[in-house]
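Structure tokens please, single chain.
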Amino acid sequence: MLDPKLYREDPEKVRSGLRRRGSHFDLDELLRLDKEKRALALELDTLKSERNTASEAIGKIKRTGGDASVEIEKTRVVGDQIKEKQDTFTAIEEKWRQLALICPNLPHASVPEGRNSADNKVVTSWGTPRAEGVPDHMEIGKRLRLFDFERGAKISGSGFPIYTGWGARLERALLNFFLDTHVNRFGFTEISPPQLVNRASMTGTGQLPKFAEDMYRCGDDDLFLVPTAEVPVTNMHAGEILDSASLPISYCAYTACFRREAGAWGADTRGFLRLHQFNKVEMVKFSAPETSYSVLEELRSHAEELLRMLELPYRVLELCAGDMGFGASKCYDLEVWAPAEKKWLEVSSCSNFEDFQARRADIRTKSDGKTRFVHTLNGSGLATPRVLVAFLETHWTEKGTVRIPAALRPFMDGREEIVAT
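Here you go.
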């Protein structure tokens, strides 16, 4: 959520940021509702002051034995006016809030101009992508009996794979490798959060109300399956004031992630490229505002190091203003090369939200007697499905096995390769 002071005092700055994003958000309507809401609040304060004055007069008159009927009638009339104005104010405030909640964040000044993914900027790359000529991940999985999409579809529908045998072991090994590296090497605190969250939590991190159609909802309880661990972990501190000396706070968490992908028409859904349920380790950081962009670079470096340890060639994209997610002020995507797919696959998105989420979830910090909103950041560290695609295709050997990089072997019983069983 944007700072209301920003669009009240400098609406042209907000319009410029929205134009950079290619957003058609109705700022004029938000400004109109905000002005109406504040005018009503002022009227309510005036009426309440009148009622208080009349009440004091009634008390004085009664203490002297006089007739307070005129003042009593005045308080009744003013009370009716207050109720009417309060009902109007509540309705206007809710309209303002619902509109403010779907206004996207503004891009940081350093974010490149551009309309879509074609305008994203490659800022670095690592490794030499393997040449084509290897089986794709579906064929490798079939040969080595690593997963079963058909039975997964029978149980739940498409987009819900079953991992089998060494495929299940590889999936678990990757998750444990990610978590242990974050904790032991990067100094994160591991969190194991709930995987069902309430509406307030989904609103706090920006999934609601804008992306409701992409979420899985348990109707009777009005709870949502988490689309990412970002939601429960960020909302751990909702409504809190964090000690400034503790910042930055770094958490990592594994959850299964559930996404309906309702808006993914035309997207490549073959195999592991797009799933309704998948596994991911998430990095979440809470930062002081003045250091959040250096924290973003640190967050990105953690995701990069995981890919280097897995020996997967990758590149880092700085997203242009028109391609960033709803809540981000600045975002990097990390993509790995999948030789059989012949394309780069996103495996991590590292974002600085500045105070956009903190305003929604009311997460603050206090220093020098001054309270202000923290900056929140998060990034995948990492999501397993597309890592698995690149892993199988990159480390496929001529003898029909998958080589296991040294960093992952302790999590795979010391094995150096996955062989057919």
